[in-house]
């Protein structure tokens, strides 16, 4: 309930999120480096499971601090996996390379 003078105060505790970002590259049929679209980026932590997709070969995720198993995957390519610790308020950049699967 507000006092008669209409003033009130609030205490807010904000956590600073960690920023994980990077690029996902591969090679095309001519052995030229290319950025990959629609790569799924899954980050599985103790408390959360976040995911996003690459757009123009780039991704961004804002997550709580903690340890994550991060998996980059796209059909037709080998997946990449990294175990990462993201400190509070950090800006972590991770670029990965996905090898195309060989077709016979």
Q: What's the alpha carbon Rg, rounded to whole Å?
A: 20 Å
- Which percent bin holds the helix content? under 10%
Instruction: Find the structural class using helix and strand composition.
Output: mainly beta
Largest sheet composition: 5 strands, mixed
Average of per-residue pLDDT values: 91
Basic shape: elongated
Element-by-element helix/strand order: EEEEEEEEE
User: What is the CA-CA span between the terminal residues?
Assistant: 73 Å
By DSSP, the count of extended strands is: 9
Note the beta-strand portion: over 45%
Q: In terms of per-residue confidence, which ranges show pLDDT below 50 for 5 or more consecutive residues?
A: none
Number of helices: 0
Q: How would you describe what is shown here?
A:
With 104 residues, the protein is mostly beta strands. The protein has strands at residues 18-27, 33-35, 40-45, 49-53, 58-63, 66-73, 80-86, 91-93, 96-97. The strands form two sheets. Strands 1, 2, 5, 8 and 9 form a five-stranded mixed beta sheet that branches. A four-stranded antiparallel beta sheet has the order 4-3-6-7, with no helix packed on it. The protein is elongated, with a radius of gyration of 20 Å. It starts with 17 loop residues before the first strand and ends in a 7-residue tail after the last strand.
